[in-house]
């Protein structure tokens, strides 16, 4: 059984995120907004099955997956 990741996780920092966004060609205004966002991640784990909820000021989304099984994520 994998490690237990159940719980709610708060982002503490995002080092080098600005440089990453520059490399992706993201415009200045969007980079400034994104750099100030803090996300909360809720993880619900049942064995190898995971349900993750990502919560932020501008966008919330949910992803369900099973370890070892290919899946698609919309970004």
From TrEMBL:
Domain of life: Eukaryota
Ranges for domain Cytosolic fatty-acid binding proteins: 7-24
Listed GO CC annotations: cytosol
Alphabetically ordered keywords of this record: Transport
Amino-acid biosynthesis as UniProt keyword: no
GO terms for biological process, alphabetical: retinoid metabolic process; triglyceride biosynthetic process
A Pfam family matched in the record: Lipocalin
Entry annotated with the keyword Protein biosynthesis: no
Molecular function via GO: lipid binding; molecular carrier activity
Similarity comment text for this entry: Belongs to the calycin superfamily. Fatty-acid binding protein (FABP) family.
PANTHER family (UniProt xref): FATTY ACID BINDING PROTEIN (PTHR11955)
Protein name per the record: Retinol binding protein 2
């Amino acid at each position: 059984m994998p490690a237990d990741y159940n719980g709610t996780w708060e982002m503490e920092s995002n080092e080098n995120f600005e440089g990453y966004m520059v490399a992706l060609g993201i415009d200045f205004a969007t980079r400034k907004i994104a750099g100030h966002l803090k996300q909360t991640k809720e993880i619900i784990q049942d064995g190898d099955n995971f349900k993750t909820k990502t919560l932020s000021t501008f966008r919330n989304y949910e992803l369900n997956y099973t370890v070892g099984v290919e899946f698609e994520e919309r970004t």
